[in-house]
Amino acid sequence: YPSEFLIQKITEDNQIPLHLHVSVSLQYVAGLKGNALVEFFHGSIAEVENEELRHLMWSSVLFYKTPNIEVMACVLLSTKAIYFLLDDSFIHADEHQSEFWTKENWDCDNSSFHLSCCFVLKLNDLQSVNVGLFDQYFRIAGHSADHIVTCLTRDSYETHTFIQQLMAVLSLLARTPSPEPVDKDFYSEFGSKNTGKMENYELIHSSRVKFIYPNEEEIGDLAFLVAEKMDCLTDLQSLNILLYVLAFQVNHIEGSAPNTSSLQPKTLILTSSDLFLFDEDYISYPLPDFAKEPPQRDKYQLADGRRIRHLDRVLMGYQTYPQALTFVFDDVQNQDLMQNLALDHFGE
C-alpha cells in the first residue's frame, strides 16, 4: 500500500509532454490518477505480486537495436524492474519485433481495450547506467544488446530524480557482496597508466551496478570536434562551449495544415562565436563490452552551423515550456558554412 505522498507524487508526474503526440493507449495511461494508477500497474504491468511502484516518468527512449527510432514511453520504476510502456508507432516501425505484433492481434479500434507494448528490464539484469553530458539523458545497460535503452529526458531534474530513485531501489536488492576493495590512492584510482588520461568518473553502487558520469575530458573532446567543424583555425584554448542542450528542430511539413510540423531531435551547441546543430548518437557510445566493431556513424555529425555575428534576431514564442526559439541569420550567401546544406532551416 503506497503512501499518500507517493500516490500524489506519481499522479503529478503522470503528464505527457505537450509537444509530443502519443497513441490512444498511452493517453489512457496518462488519464489515470491516484489509486487507479497504482491498480493499473498491479493489474496490467507488474510481473510479481509483491513489487511496489516507486517512480513514474514520461520520456523519449531509444533502443540499441533501433538507434534511429525515438519513441515516447511511460517509464515505471518498481522494486523489481524498470518497465517501458511504448507508443504504438514503435511496434509498427520496428520489423524486428516478435510476430505477436501482427495486424490480427491489433484489432482494437472498436473496443475499449487498449493494447500497448511493454519492454521490461529486470533490476537484477542491470549492469551499468551512463549519465549523458549535463544530465540531458542517461543510458541503462544490461548484459546484451536487447537490454540497452537510452532515456532522452532533455531535463537535468528528471534525470537526477530518476537516478536517485533507481539507487534507492537498487539498495533493496539482495546481492552477494563484492569482495573488499584494495585501498588505492587518487592517481591509481582514476588514472590510466597506459594513456595518462583520466577515466570517466565511476560510482559502483552497493548492488554492484556502475553509475558512470562524464568527466571534463568529454567536454574537451567535444570542443576539439567543434573546432574542427569551424571554417577557421580557432585557438582551442579560447574556444568555450557555453551551452549543450538536447532540443528539437521544427520542420514545417509542406502541403499540410499551417500548424503541422515535425520535430527532429538535435543537439544544440553554443560557443562564443558559433551556433551548431548536431545529430548525436545517444545510444552507441561508450561502446558496450559485447560490441565487436564500432557503430556505423560517429557520435556527433554536423547538421548545421552559423556564425553568431550573422545572427540578426531571435524570435521567442509565448507558449509555456518547451519554449520555441527561431534564429534569424542574415548570411544569405552562407559563406561561412563549411559544407553545402540542401535544407535551409531558417527561411529565405
UniProtKB/TrEMBL annotation:
Residues 241-347 form the Nischarin C-terminal PH domain. GO terms for cellular component: endosome membrane. Keywords: Cytoplasm. The keyword DNA repair does not apply. GO terms for biological process: Golgi organization; lysosome localization; regulation of protein localization. The keyword Magnesium does not apply. It is found in: Cytoplasm. Its main location: cytoplasm. GO terms for molecular function: kinesin binding. Residues 114-178 form the PLEKHM2 PH domain. It holds the Pfam family PH_NISCH_C. It comes from the Eukaryota. PANTHER family: PLECKSTRIN HOMOLOGY DOMAIN-CONTAINING FAMILY M MEMBER 2 (PTHR46556:SF1). This is NISCH protein. It comes from Psilopogon haemacephalus (coppersmith barbet). The lineage of its organism: Eukaryota, Metazoa, Chordata, Craniata, Vertebrata. The gene is Nisch_1.
